[in-house]
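Mods, move this if it's the wrong board.
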Amino acid sequence: MSDGNSRVRLNLRVDEDVKCAFNDEVEAKFGKCRPYAGIELEREFRYFLDEGEFAELNNVVDDLTDSLDGSEGKEKIRETNRSKTTVASHRIAEDVRTALMSAAEDDFRSPGKLVEAIMYGYVTNGSAIERLTQKLRDISEQSKPDVDSSMGAKERRTKTIAHELEQSGPGGFTLKEFDEAIEAAQGIGASDYTRRQYLPRVLDELDFTWHPRNPDLFISRESLDLPEVRDPTKKPVMLVDRDDKRLAIKIAAYRAQGDFKDKAAFSVDDAVDLFEGRVRKNTVRPLMREVAESSPGYRWDRDDSQLKVDRKKVRRHYDQNTEVVKIEHEESTPVGRGD
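Not the wrong board. Structure tokens:
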């Protein structure tokens, strides 16, 4: 990684939770943090600086993307909401540290904030190689031959899948039946990736939605009396977006057990279990912090890595916690009109 250059300590201040999340992510991938954290971080820095083999590969991938439907350009580096900071002392090549300091100056932000943002991107979006892999998958999907020139490949496949599922009748369709319908669409097969890509499109095409009591069943919206606010903890994980995850955490934390009647504690492990293990700790931890920062009655306990809840306070601050209060205290479970 260092190309023969001497290695030095990074020695820049970053958000403590972001650093911990980055180190946890590296340990989850490699079994231990050292020396891989420094190696991975240097690779991410080189990728950001457009240096090294992954940066060269990314340029080729971007050229391919541009030839298909227009390049999205350089990846955006998101800043985080800083809390307590700590020193990141990972060892990296000296020339990379120097280039990073210069890039931060050109980017009008502190070097520590730039490093923190790159770490956060690794945690939330994966490593450089994982992001490139996803780009190549997207290119592969976009480049499949379209037998119908009057519509795009995804639109054609969506209509094919929807047509297959319409044969299931008014009772809706299951996830297994959806997988079988995918096989009828030319050029794709059933997988987690194709479910994420096509299930939302097919639901829109059919005006269907997920069943409130059976996450494996999808039915017509007309067959349900839907409440104003739906409980995202019952929504199929593959359909859950970032806002759904945040609200699901708020609701699950509100329902959690505590030492006293109106107190509750909800851990990072609890949040991972909530999403059936399909969402990483490093994804749910920032969401839990966001809940604490934006919602009265919720407090992030850094020492215990828990979301602490005062249920009475949550109810008192209705405007900031409207959805939680409606789901828990105002809305009844939807009932099928034909049930």
